[in-house]
Fold:
Amino acid sequence: MSKLEKLVEDLSALSVLEAAELSKLLEDKWGVSAAAPVAVAAVGGGAAAPVEAVEEQTEFTVVLTDGGDKKINVIKEIRSIRTDLGLKEAKDLVEGAPQNVKENISKQEAADIKKKLEEAGAKVEVK
Structure:
C-alpha cells in the first residue's frame, strides 16, 4: 500500500471531532486558510453521506431544445404527444424552443417521447 493510500484510509477513519482537531493542527502548522479545514472536516465525516444522498430520480421533464429542419414533422409529433395543444400552440412550442414538452413523467415515457421527437428531427433533452 502506498503512503497516499494509507493516508486516505487513515483520514477516512477519523471522527468529526478528530477531523476538526486535525484541521486546527494543519492551520497552525502551515497557515492553511479557513476554506481548507472545512474540506478536511468533510472528508473525515463524509463517509456515510453518499449513502444517504443517493436518491433515484422518479419524475422527468422532456425539453425540446431545437425544432430542427423538419419542423412540420416535429409539430405533428408534439400534437400526438400533447393532445391538449392545438396546431398553433404546438407550432409556438416548437418555434419557441427550448420549451418543456411534458413534465413530471416516468423515465420510460420520457424516453419514448424523446425517441419520437428525435426521429421527427428535433433535438431533445430529458431532465
